[in-house]
Amino acid sequence: MSAAGGDRAREPGPLLVACALRIEQAALRSACRGPAGGHVLLRTGMGPRAAERAVGRALDRPGTDLAAVLATGFCAGLVPGMHPGDLVVAEETRDPRATVACTGSTLLAEALARAAPGRTVHTGALTGSDHVVRGQERAQLRATGAIAVDMESAATLWTATRGGDRPVAAVRVIVDAPEHELVRIGTVRGGISAFRVLRAVLPAFHEWHRSLLLPRR
């Protein structure tokens, strides 16, 4: 089964930015200037089931039924050489139910590089899990071609696209990687670095959303 966030003939609705954790929400809120910052920020709670429920409810509300959806927060990198604070832009998200193609991944990666100069931006497949992945299981996921793993992005995008086509994207900040595994977010340098990067990249999300208004060739 495959769902795609392809082009839309009509203008997209508002931007729904979905994250799971309070620390992710805090980073994104601290990046806002003035009122909501031109987006709706949704904290889903942790795990794919929580993400599915929260996003489904949000998209049923008047005014957000046509929203573009961007999943964000922290993730685990799967590729040797990745570092905490690196960014991952999904070209697609994967879980056992579906592979969902993301909209405008190249443009989004370019916008992120401008928003967070000096940070490496990786693009590729972002896979989903219903639990924290460590050790050998990460190597097994890497063997499938995925470059990073988190618990909510795939469920968020699957829920967003199951009722019809809409623009979707996923951006994650690496908190740990094969050579930089951490135990608790926020207590080590990797977690602090990821928080700062997530706080810096919100303007790139808005740039991606504005690009959806441009004519497509």
UniProtKB/TrEMBL annotation:
Organism domain of life: Bacteria
One Gene Ontology cellular component: cytosol
Record GO terms (molecular function): adenosylhomocysteine nucleosidase activity; methylthioadenosine nucleosidase activity
Record Pfam families: PNP_UDP_1
Domain Nucleoside phosphorylase stretches: 40-184
Protein name: 1-hydroxy-2-methyl-2-butenyl 4-diphosphate reductase
Protein's GO biological process: L-methionine salvage from S-adenosylmethionine; nucleoside metabolic process
InterPro entries in the record: Nucleoside_phosphorylase_d, Nucleoside_phosphorylase_sf
